[in-house]
């Protein structure tokens, strides 16, 4: 089973068994680099500390990846 990058029209996929069962969304490396570095840093800090705010930062990263995907193909 494979899971696709959450950015529309991105064709990159990843095997599902490599990821945790709770991670049902994934951003490929090309689109991940397009997101804001500071938001990624705060997201990882919240994730390490198991804070509920990490979902808010994940949603922000998703929006950035989708908005900035216009220049990446």
Task: Please explain how this structure is put together.
The structure is a single chain. With 73 residues, this protein is mainly alpha-helical. The protein has one domain (2-71). The chain has three helices and two strands, in the order E-E-H-H-H. The protein has a two-stranded antiparallel ribbon with strand order 1-2. Helix 2 (37-48) runs antiparallel to helix 3. It is globular and about 30 Å long. The model has no long low-confidence stretch (mean pLDDT 84).
Total domain modules: 1
Reported for the largest beta sheet, the result is:
2 strands, antiparallel
Q: Termini distance?
A: 24 Å
Q: In what order do the strands lie side by side in the largest sheet?
A: 1-2
Helix share bin: 40-55%
What structural category arises from helix and sheet content? Answer: mainly alpha
- Provide mean pLDDT, rounded: 84
How many alpha or pi helices?
3
How large is the radius of gyration?
12 Å
Total E-strand runs: 2
Give the CA-based shape: globular
- Strand fraction band? 5-15%
Poorly predicted spans? none
Instruction: State the order of secondary-structure elements, H for helix, E for strand.
Output: EEHHH
